[in-house]
Amino acid sequence: xxxxxxxxxxxxxxxxxxxxxxxxxxxxxxxxxxxxxxxxxxxxxxxxxxxxxxxxxxxxxxxxxxxxxxxxxxxxxxxxxxxxxxxxxxxxxxxxxxxxxxxxxxxxxxxxxxxxxxxxxxxxxxxxxxxxxxxxxxxxxxxxxxxxxxxxxxxxxxxxxxxxxxxxxxxxxxxxxxxxxxxxxxxxxxxxxxxxxxxxxxxxxxxxxxxxxxxxxxxxxxxxxxxxxxxxxxxxxxxxxxxxxxxxxxxxxxxxxxxxxxxxxxxxxxxxxxxxxxxxxxxxxxxxxxx
Amino acid sequence: xxxxxxxxxxxxxxxxxxxxxxxxxxxxxxxxxxxxxxxxxxxxxxxxxxxxxxxxxxxxxxxxxxxxxxxxxxxxxxxxxxxxx
Lengths: 291, 85
Description:
The complex is a heterodimer.
Chain A: H1 4-60, H2 68-71, E1 78-84, H3 94-111, E2 115-121, H4 126-132, E3 137-141, H5 151-166, E4 172-180, E5 186-194, E6 211-213, H6 216-290
Parallel strand pairs in A: 1-2, 1-4, 2-3
Antiparallel strand pairs in A: 4-5
Helix pairs in contact in A: 1-6, 5-6
Chain B: E1 3-8, E2 13-19, E3 21-26, E4 29-33, E5 40-44, E6 47-52, E7 60-72, E8 75-84
Parallel strand pairs in B: 1-8
Antiparallel strand pairs in B: 1-2, 3-4, 3-6, 5-7, 6-7, 7-8
């Protein structure tokens, strides 16, 4: 049986832990609202770009001279897995879910005899992936100095990826991130980003003849890297919102667990205090009777 | 006689309003868009977009970098990567 002093110490330590988790929960809630607003604000651009992409890709896509970012290198041997993680923990299974999805895909690809490399965004996924595939991390994008990944980061990542693609370092790239469903549900998602998959939404045929300046191919060529940037940007925003959502849920649970633990420890504390008092009384009474 | 003009960046919707005319710095030269312009699409070079709220009014200039312009039935949509206004 722990002494009264020890119990008191433990209660206090759990109480301060609870304060920390509660603070983190509130911070995550505030950041979540902001991240959701950012994701909302980015939607119009992405939608319009996807619309333009769809109408152009259906026109030019089938031709032989389609840009390489759309048509692919013709091979399907070397795969690059772009894994977007966060830099901070305290977000439950957020990071490990993304990494698990990426590793599952890597194993599936290797089973098919393809070669796999990783491109990591953020800090948290690195140790796990390095343990599983020690020599296959080709590059890492550091986001530790930026507080909120924005379009500038998406731009730099996209430029790096396109440069690697042009240099022939991979044939296909997949992006792994966590799609934000709600504060409670985040879905680890993997999608192909290079070659750019043709948008699934069929363009509304207005029947009007659209004039292109300079030409359709040139516009598509200028558009594809932009589309890639937008997709990465969208993924970063979703990731951000998911991270805060996961963090909020995890910290809520932690706060509640701490509360339960404090309750249990307090009962134990009161019981042993009562027991000590009773023992003392018995001793006094026994002493008085002996006189 | 109003043209619906939208200026969108990846981060937000900058403008969405009815204007008289917009002059866009296209890659192959500037072009003005009025209401009822034929469907048209062009990449833009870094430069200033001039927005005329009414005919003859002094234009409002917005600096844009990288992107393209699309003219359709719904008006003019300008997708720019960076906007300084």
